[in-house]
Amino acid sequence: MVHQVWRYYIPSVNGEGWGVFFLDSDGIISAVTDYGNYGCWFSDPGCKDFREFFLNAWRDRGYFLRKFAVNTKKVYQGEETFSAIKQEILSRRRGNGLSKEAARSEWKLLHYDWLESLHLYEQALKWLDLTEMDFDDGPPFVFDHSRSLKKFVDELLPRLSLILTAELASEQEDKTNTLLTVAPTPPQ
Question: Reduced to 3 states, what is the DSSP secondary structure of residue 171?
Answer without folding.
Answer: helix
